[in-house]
Each structure stands twice: as C-alpha cells, then as structure tokens.
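Predict the 3D structure for this chain.
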Amino acid sequence: MTPSWTIGDKPESPFRWIHIDGRDVEAMHWLDGDAHGLPETARFNLTTAETRPRCQPLGDGVIINLRGPRKDQNEDGDALVSIRIWAERGRLVSVSYRRMAGLGALRQRMEKGEFLDPGDLIAALSMQIAQHLDPVVADLGDQVDDCELALSGDNYALRREIAKARSTAISYRRFVVPQRQALEAMAQLQYDWIEDEDRIHLREAADRFARMAEELEAVRERSALLHEQITDLRAEKIDGRSLIVAVVALIFLPLTFVTGLFGMNVDGIPYQHHPLSFWAVTGFSVLVGLLVAGYFVVTNWFRN
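Done. Predicted structure below.
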C-alpha cells in the first residue's frame, strides 16, 4: 500500500512530500497503524471528510487545513476544496478528497528542488491559492457593479444574478476568513523548519485573504442592498399599476350602475321607446366618466 505520490525519496532531498488521494482506498490504508510515525490526532485530521481551514501545533509538527479552488469545476460540492496537511521536520503528508487546482504545478516545483522544507511548500501553496482566488473575488465585485449599473436603467431582471453573486460570496467567505486566521497562526509558530522567509510569505498570503474577506463581505452587503432596492422598485411598479386599475374601475363603477339600471327588462322605464333615449343615456355616461376622471386629475391621484 503506497501513497498517491511521494516526492523527495532521494538521499539528497531536503524533505519528503507524501500526497494521498482520499478517494484511493489503497492509498488511504497507508495511514493505518503506527508504522509511519504519524500522531493519532494527525491521522484523524488527515482522514476527516469535512474540514474547515485551521492551524494546530502538535508536538514537533503542525496540522493545517487549507481550502483552494477545485480543478474540476463540474464537480458538486463547495467551490473551494480542502487539503489536509501534517507537516514536521523532513516530511509533509497531505490528503485531498477532491482534486485541487495547482497541485500539479507545486509537484513539478518540488521535483525541481525549489522547496527546502515543509514551510516553503505550505507558503507556496497558500500564495498559489491566493493568486487563484484574487481574480474570482474581483469578478464578483465587477458582477455586482454591472448589476448596479443595470439597475439604474430600470432593469428588474437582475434578482437571480444578484442572488447568485451573493450566494457565491457567502460560500467563499465561509472558508477565506478562517484560512487567513490559520495562516497567521502558522506564521507565528517557532519551528526551526519554518524560516523567516516562509513567515513573510505566510503573512503576505494571510493579508491577501484578509483583503478578499473584506471584498466578499462588501459584495454580500451590496448584493443584499441591491436585492432590497429591486424589491422596492418592483413594489412601486406594482403599486402604480394597481393605482391605474383602481382609477379605471372607479371611473366605470357609476357607468356600470347607469347602464345596469337602464338595461333592466321591466316595464315603466322612462323614455323607453323614445328615439333619442339611447343617445341620451350614452351622453350621460360619457359625461359622468369625464367628471370622475377630471376629479382624479385635479386631486393629483396619479402622483400620490
């Protein structure tokens, strides 16, 4: 039973990176038992199905969970997939149940010998995730900007787009905020395999995640305000249409009474057989309609 890949087995390698695909049952069996010297808590964290970003020192190593963009955008679930990491001097063990974008590039850099310790690899991973998410968060902000411009043109067909942007922002922010906290916590750990340059990169990544969290919060709030504004505009439009319907109904209400009264099939209706009766009733109805409509115009009903 072997991991999905292992880099750094050569004697001259500064450390090993052991990565396991959580969907590979045989590879996951590699974590069983105590043969590899993994603490029980670390093994539990590596095999947990659902995780949030966090950083927890444990003995001479550290448990850190990060979230990054998924490689296959058609997969179901969260947009940010999890990678669970156990790091110690000379070794880094990672597990991911869904493929994360950019791991292949990190693997190539590892094979070229660009990373000298686990701190280098974790710092590079966090910076890479930040670089992937920066344009995504910026696009969300641009999407809300476009919705605001479209709304100024009385375009009401934006509720679904705004709701999608707000939902996406909430989904990302749920992991971006604790990820920033995890990176800040790791940057403060005093392990000799975390160099000062690694701490600088970790703090820089944490700062970028902090800015992304602020932007996502702004997107969420602006989306909520836009949704309320659209709802208000739709309510105003419906009220205006209801007012027109009410005015028309009130104009025709007395006319309906007059026509109903003279339309009864009973004897004794005055001027029933007079040749001008029809035109007299019609003229009276038109006059009543004009008087009622004039009343609404004079009293500014349409402006209220």
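The mean pLDDT is 82.
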